[in-house]
């Protein structure tokens, strides 16, 4: 993917993101209980609705992945509204672009076109549309996203629905899963984007080799269908965070090798790999080994158009528990960036931290410092 010149950074503030412990813990949603009929007011002016006190949801007792001293709690009810530390324009054009999965907290209103423009204002370069609960986007919205993408140069990708299992035990679920993957790619094409990622499915106590062969056949067929339709979007099945899910890095690289020449690659989620291995795969040498495997199985070009997911992550011995902010986690993202730089990698990094653009800016700053372009 050709490198694009990073947009000029706009200074909003240089105040660092608030530490997690100091953030408000009020819930964003209003109280859902209805007031008794006798207490309802007929006047236009209403009293402010009381907000619940946020109740922190505990992580599993055996959860790992937190920095020492960080409470083992799942981020819930936090409000991200503090000043953003926008990075200065780099000395030379970025080869790796950073962005977020989902609409940024600071986008107003909260919509896909506004997300693209807000990320551009912040000097970020990637927006991943989250279709995780279904591919629901109107044609007119697709046109607005496409226009915003063309205007800003922000790379647009998409994450398919969670309800995908291409080797379900129920045939109707397989067909529904195929449709969800295809619909994700079609919607992304209408938005002017590329790179449709999805979780392919589960083993369901079957032989991994059997599941791998079936998944490879299914994804190959989906790529062929999109090609016949004239859809240019690349399918990027994602590395998964639990051992019960199909999608280790080795499995996806073997699939890519088997489907050489087709319009598919992989989404490599380094946090998922870290969680899937219960805390391993978090050193420079291990990151370098993963990139070497991609290069050997998928070809050198796979490192020139990478689709990466990254965040902090909590995990147990069974794998992923939930995502964390970078500052709360043990994710060794600086050594990851060193490995990417040493391998000459380029592409897109999608931040999936709960803090979204706050942590994406932290990642971007660290990458530019290590690359010598800050």
Element string (H = helix, E = strand): EEEHEHEHEEHEEHEHHEEEHEH
Give the biggest sheet: 8 strands, parallel
The stretches of 5 or more residues where confidence is low (pLDDT under 50) are 1-55
Q: Say which CATH homologous superfamily is assigned.
A: Divalent-metal-dependent TIM barrel enzymes
Strand content: 5-15%
Number of spatially distinct domains:
1
Number of helices: 9
CATH topology group: TIM Barrel
- Would you tell me the structural class of the helices and strands? alpha/beta
Radius of gyration: 21 Å
Question: What does this entry show, briefly?
Answer:
This protein is α/β, with parallel strands linked by helices and 374 residues long. It is 33% helix and 14% strand. Strands 8-6-5-4-3-14-11-10 form an 8-stranded parallel β-sheet. It has a two-stranded antiparallel sheet with strand order 1-2.
